[in-house]
Amino acid sequence: MILRLGSIIRKEFIQILRDPRTLAIILVIPIMQLFLLGYAATTDIKNVPLGVWDQSRSPESRALLDAFRSANYFNIAYQVGSQDEERSLIEMGRVRGVLIIPPDYAVHVAHGDAQVSMILDGSDATAGSTALSAAQLIGQAYATSVISDQTALTGRPVTTKPPVEVRTQVWYNPDLVSAYFMIPGVIGMILYAIASILTATTIVRERERGTIEQLIVTPIRSWELVVGKILPYVIVSFLDTFEVLIIGHWWFAIPIRGDLGLILLTSGLLLLSSLGIGLLASTIANTQQEAYLTVWLTLLPSIFLSGFFFPLEAMPPFLQAVAYAIPLRYYLIIIRALLIKGVGLSAIQNEVIALAIFGVVIMGLAAMRFRKRLD
Amino acid sequence: MPDADFLIDSTNLVRYFGETHAVDGVSIHIKAGEIYGLVGSDGAGKTTTVRLLCGALRPDSGDISVAGYDVQKRTEQARSQLGYLSQRFSLYEDLTVLENIRFFAEVRGMKSNEWYPRCMEILEFVGLANFKDRRAGQLSGGMKQKLGLASALVTRPRVLLLDEPTTGVDPVTRQDFWQLLIKLVSAPLTPDPSLNIGSGSRSTPEAIGGEGEGVAVLISTPYMDEAVRCHRVGFMRHGKIIAEGTPSELRAMLKDRVLELSGTPIKGLRAIAQKDADVDDVCAFGDRLHLRVKQDKAQVVIDRLPLEIQSQGAQVNHLRSIPAQLEDVFIYLSEQSYE
């Protein structure tokens, strides 16, 4: 029995190593996802091209521009001299925004009620909003330094109102690093998507290529076949988890504050669900393509409703209710809490229990159905 | 109780697929050293029968025992005595020849100290020893079938079930394949002293199976020239075995009822022959026609038909009684079963 199981596992590993497609899914896709989501799917801004219309041309205005330059958010690309120029630069997309410093800026700084205005290209709402927030932050930081300068010169108490005000609307905190939110999610995605897709296709491949017929007439029992075929992918999934954790930690500086044992345990619970989904899909599908599509049908809603991209709290109540049926939802809460907040088991016990129940139920269903299909 | 003489002993197998009687009351009994041919057209139920016998499908009713083990109750023991080669090549194309054989040897319970010499022996037997490190996917069609046979034989099964193993294989390879089968049933692999496989197999020869006696082979085939090679043949139609016997027994069913006609033009001859009241059927065999005539009417037809043909301006080269070929019998049987 152990020998049989060992043979299946060894065979499966040989096949994994010889199949470029499977290898690519295992090795490349996690890294691709990690970097894509770590960099591209970020709402942080950097080096946004900015035009400046400095009507003040005073030491005060130059100091403000220095502050903009030194914070990496903006790249001051153009000096603007007229409204027409300002409009054409934005229209042509040369700049994302124009900072206008009024002629009386220096005077107002002295009075403590300076204002500058910022015109932003709103066609990309997210980037625009973030740029606004960043501009506001720079303004505030600069204002603070102005205040301390004044205090040192005059010896008067600090005025409550900052002397420079960049008029912006704050709705997003630019200090939030998106990667902190995304990368724990990538771990969940990989455990969920890769494990279920690989499990479904590896089992369906036996049916598609007719090899299942040879397996059926051997003394292999159906549970041995399932375990023997799934176990390599459990190992592979954990390797992928480590891969993402390590790159996430060293490259994106994601903290790993929680207990590693707990991370592995809860990851194992999620794997139970995803392997079960893959196994279920394999009992429905007859070709690898069908299996792949079947798994994706369940994966897509899972990804969007699990809070992977969008915070659960922002969803309408109906979708929030649906999300309770998605195992990945619980895992994402768990893994984010474990990595970023470093909580213990007590803080996440409800999610862990829910995840365990899902895992056992899905796997149980799959195992039952699989037995029938072998006949 | 299963008869100990029969390595395959199946009674009254029935299997439905929805409304279709895929297999409808099939009984097959095969002894050691016997090659049994299951013949019939596509959809006759051959593959379903073979799958029932090896336990890949469950029958809706009926009993099967393989080497004395009930396939449904003692599945594992029965399967350990069973080699099965399915119609489609169904080994792992991304594994090498040796890896494939090793895998099937191991999952059938062969110990790690046994599999290597046994695998090499079996590869030698089927003539694939030089290709042991080649990926199965890169083998030719014939070599794939040999590999399939090798992996079915590696654990020395006493029963071999082959589902159309030579379909789509070139004639030379088919010939090779049959030589292997004949060697297998007449002179089993295992007694060869040079092939002594370690101590494990010595102590429990019966458990390994096949020692000292031949293997029972069931082969399904659509080819008549292969059916002739079998010791016994069962002809399947619509899920039933409608005739069974040695090839000569089957051919005797049409003793003195087949005439061979040649002449010109062949089309015209055919039309004239079909009109004869005592001719049941006309079949083209190359440039000749086979006429199946009613019982005891051969001489009547031989006397009458050439005159009729000449009177219509066609020409007869010869018309004579010939021994029936299996193909004649099967065409005859196919028509019978419609009635």
Question: Top keywords for this entry?
Answer:
heterodimer; A: abc type-2 transporter like fold; 2 domains; 5-stranded mixed sheet; 5 strands; elongated; B: alpha/beta; Rossmann fold; Alpha-Beta Plaits; 6-stranded mixed sheet; 4-stranded antiparallel sheet; 36% helix
Describe the model:
The complex is a heterodimer of chains A (375) and B (339). Chain A is α/β, with parallel strands linked by helices and 375 residues long. Chain A folds into 2 domains: 2-41 and 177-374, no CATH class; 48-166, abc type-2 transporter like domain (abc type-2 transporter like fold), CATH 3.40.1710.10. Chain A has 14 helices and 5 strands. A 5-stranded mixed sheet of chain A has the order 2-1-3-4-5, with helices on both faces. Chain A is elongated and about 90 Å long. The model of chain A is unreliable at 147-161 and 167-176 (pLDDT under 50). Chain B starts with 5 loop residues before the first strand and ends with a helix. Chain B has 339 residues and is an alpha/beta fold. Chain B folds into 2 domains: 6-246, Rossmann fold (3-Layer(aba) Sandwich); 256-322, 2-Layer Sandwich (Alpha-Beta Plaits). Chain A binds chain B through residues 3-4, 6-8, 11, 14-15, 18-19, 209-220, 375, and chain B through 51, 54-58, 75-76, 79-80, 82, 84, 86, 88-95, 99, 102-104, 106-109, 111-112, 151.
